[in-house]
Amino acid sequence: MNEENKAVCKLLVLFSVIRQIEEKGPTMTDKKQKTQPKRWEQNLWKPVELPIDEPLGIYPRQSTKRQLTANVQSNEIQREDLIKMAIERGWNEDLIKLYDQDFAKSGTIDIDGRKGMLQMLSDIKAMKIRAVFVYMEDRLFRDEYQINVDTFIKVCSEAGCLILTPMMIYDLSNKWHRRQFRDACERAWEYLDEQIMYRLHMARDRAASQGLYDGRALAIGYAVDKDKKSPTYKKYVVYEPHAKVLKYIFNRFIELGSLGALAKELNNGAAIFPNESIDYASQFTRLKSLKVPGGYSVSYSGLRKLLLNPVYIGWWKYGEEGYIKGNHEPIIEEALFWYVHSQLVKEKQKDMAIEEEGQEEKELEEEELQERYHTSSKSVVRGVLSAEPYQIAANNPRGSYVIVDDKSLKRYALATISIDVIEQVFLDKFLPRLNDIEFYNDYANAAEEDIKAEHERREFIQEQCNQAQKRIDGIFLTLQDPDLDVEQRGEFVETRKKLIVQRDKYKRELETPSPLQQFYDYHELIQKIGPHWNKLPLELRQTFVSLLIDKVHLSHLSPHFVKVVIQWKRLGEDTGVIWRPMSATYGWTEEELKILQELYPKGATEELMQALPRRSYNAYNTKAQDLKIRKTERSTEPKRPDLSLGDLKVIEEYEVPEDNTALIHSVTWF
């Protein structure tokens, strides 16, 4: 073939290649070159265009619950004002999503420990939001080692998500912006470390060492002197309206001779301490937990602490064990205070001696008690049991739970129920679900979002672990420099040690299987061993219960009935009423005794039951005989003399079958 023909063939091949390129479009290499210019071709100073047609996330955060109420302006700025600013910048309100689950969470907490931050990062990664708006960079992080910051930068950079503050726009794919953002986050930590954790704590400690008010909870009876010209400036001064009450309480304790008697007398429903005057209102904000209509009250344990507090003889607590004596004006004379103190200590020692004696008896007769009361020392339901707004306590020697009203000075036992009864009532509902294959399908569907969130959380922990390892490796390379001075080398070594501890913490979290994973690993086993549930390790059974159950709530309905509500985390709730053969025992009030004295002689059965709804016919008859109250007229015995009006109303309301009110415990589900 001559040279001319060869040239023609080459041209034809070239034209063919060009045609194929035109038909196929640009290659992946071409695309990469167009979307990712070389580093020296990047324009780091180009204006950032706001994605106002894309979803925007707003992340507000304050460190403590107290700040939510104390720093209302900051709260409003981070929520309402940021939304207004976003709208002013062009966003439609429908595109704005608020991630406010981390109020009362510190910025020092890792990403996986903050629900709002974790959800926001997941949405950034999935490109569900294209920008984040925060009041300041420190709302995102106060991170000593910048591990969380680096993880955040990596996710935002890869997703192309912008970070906005009122003063700055960060495009974290831009090297210069990354550096500025990281510097701002480092300054946030340095401020926390130097200004708050060091200087503020140092100033507080200095004030406390001089007997000056240091921000601690205000001792009722005192206020803080705010007059700069006063010799007692910043010290406790007596607040007379409350001091008068304190003096009465101390003296009344001596007259009555016991804390229980004092608590009973003070428990009349009224406030113990009056409301403060308007001049002192700002100082009493820390006493909100004691607030009741008309003033302030204290709990039974609070009353005891008040009587034992040496602040009332002018002592100021400093450090763990130390006191500054004669620091401020006393409210109580020392002789009176120490006498009350000695009496309360004696009461406590007596209680402890009785408790020790009971413990010894328990150890000697443990098998007998277990057999007699059928107690279950290893409860799977205890961790999720609740009786809000009341407390629930376990009386193990008696094998029972007690619902206690501790909101007033006198603690009332509202109801007592066997531990094993509650355990069995719960398992009668819980175990059938575990043996039902459809339950697992329903649970999996209901838990789909949680399973996804758990997977994403573990991904972020892995990324944090990777970032920590990078920092550890980087410091190791730095330490190879022979020119490092001793001080720098020491700082690097110390930082590396702390980073290794942090990395190992992440590794342990990743190695520990999640409860969700345990659930799916073991549910087939549980289906097979159904009747042998008790053979599973206690920790595993408790894990299943805490995974599936939000709360098992008990509430007192009447002397014979307790309501139980099993709240499943994702699948609704089961509600029932438990019949207790032994009714609750209540102390008779003066008002009830007066009613009994007035109505019992008349034999007015119906009227008595209406007036004494907690008392059965049998109960008030027994009490009348004890008090030697005689009937002048015959009374009609009701069909169920063992039931109170309260019990009868529960039976009617919840349609409890008569068979369920026999001699053994029973439960009626509805």
What does this protein look like?
Among the domains are: 56-201, Rossmann fold, CATH 3.40.50; 222-345, Putative Large Serine Recombinase, Chain B, Domain 2 (Hect, E3 ligase catalytic domain fold, Alpha-Beta Complex); 437-536. It contains 22 helices and 20 strands. The model is unreliable at 10-15, 21-36, 65-72 and 351-377 (pLDDT under 50). Strand 11 and strand 12 (322-324) form a beta hairpin. The protein is globular and about 105 Å long. A five-stranded mixed β-sheet has the order 2-1-3-4-5, sandwiched between helices. It has a five-stranded mixed β-sheet with strand order 13-17-18-19-20. A three-stranded antiparallel β-sheet has the order 8-10-9. Helix 6 crosses helix 15, helix 14 packs across helix 15 and helix 15 (448-478) packs antiparallel against helix 16 (486-511). The protein is α+β, with helices and mostly antiparallel strands and 670 residues long. The protein starts with a helix and ends with a strand.
